[in-house]
Design brief:
The protein contains 4 helices and 3 strands; from the N terminus they run H-H-H-H-E-E-E. Strand 2 and strand 3 form a beta hairpin. Helix content is 52%, strand content 9%. The protein is mainly α and 99 residues long. It starts with a helix and ends with a strand. The protein folds into 2 domains: 35 residues; 52 residues, no CATH class. The mean pLDDT is 94. The radius of gyration is 14 Å and the shape is globular.
Length: 99
Amino acid sequence: MSWQVIQEFANVAIHRFKVPLKAADLAEYLELVLWPHCAIFPSLPIHRKAIEIHDNLGFRYDDSLMVASALSSDAEILYSEDLQHGQVIGTLHIENPFL
């Protein structure tokens, strides 16, 4: 999991959940569940790859960062409702988990 996944989850949990998570609950979930699985952190190579993806594929920059992070971790599948289901970028397959 990359740091962006944690960032996205926290944003949704605070702003879009029908009943938003309380700060203490979010902090505990972050510490006990999400953070132990976080293996990809910001780096210059990831940002450079994201710029390349943005330029070549026209993705929004935050989506490009997700793809670049997934590629840097050698992930085979990126689950996203924001990207085109079935698209393949290098060795990375995009899947919409809600289809």
